[in-house]
Fold:
Amino acid sequence: MDDAPLAAGSIGARAASLRILIVSDAWFPQVNGVVRTMSIVADHLRAGGDTVEVIGPDRFVNVPMPGYAEIRLAIAPGRRLRQLVDAFAPEVVHIATEGPLGWAMRALCRKRGWPFTTAFHTRFPDYLHARTRIPVAWSWAVMRRFHEAGAGTFAATRSLREELAERGFTKVRAWTRGVDLAGFRPEPRDPWEGLARPVFLYAGRVAVEKGIEAFLSLDLPGSKVVVGDGPARAGLMARFPGVHFTGYRDNGALARSYAGADVFVFPSRTDTFGLVLLEALASGTPVAAFPVTGPRDVVTDPRIGALDDDLRAACLRALEADRPACRAHAENWSWEACAAQFRAALVPVA
Structure:
């Protein structure tokens, strides 16, 4: 875990319990890294004695995001949000996302003079550009305006924090991630019966920004497997009929999928971390990825995978990795440390 100093006015070491408000446009029933991270952290905080309230789009009139029906967007949340906030009476506020709820909570905090923290989970400028060709400079300016109004912006990796600083973010704070070491482990393994070995696996959201086509287009021995669902799945299935698509799998089946693979392939160039990297490593499965933010912060030992701008070369080198070393590396990451670092950097509203 990065040992960056705490922001001025932060909570610091655990003392009395806190009333922690988290506002997030990404929440259940969505399935993604933001939801998993925030829900696990909230559970750890509650277990430690804090009272945690998460306000998501499920509490508002909402509509599906164009082109991505799984994501719901709250409509005109201001009045209802204010009522929910007043009913909870938070001692600290954390805004997890930059959607309608995030902007509405930001406006409420600024009106009341409440400091708040934010987190940089998602590269929306890159995602918007991939879908709409909107210039990334425009989107980065909006993101910077959103986050700079707060008392601190949490980012998961050193390389992401350096990039944000280069883009003009001045309040970037360290906030690591974790992995469920009991849920993701080397055994039991999915044998992937009927599939030729080696098995190269991708798991996660099946969307254009994940770069899955770069993986599926590779000339690799054995079999390719995609675990997960999303708006790009139907198109990829039609284009790559030789690939085995399983659809969404829950944690037990997902853990067996990771453990049964020979290499986990992470083709995204836009993720800010990639929880799936830690899940694969905890399952004893080496990683092949591009040398970009996320993979280069996690895959720091050549024994546990390979990073290369030539993704095929990375996949083939990863076949020679040390599976016990993968598990040992993942054991350096814990959700307990993640939750503690998050709590320590929160800022009181009073």
About this structure: The CA atoms of residues 301 and 329 lie 8 Å apart. The domain at 199-330 is CATH 3.40.50.2000 (Rossmann fold).
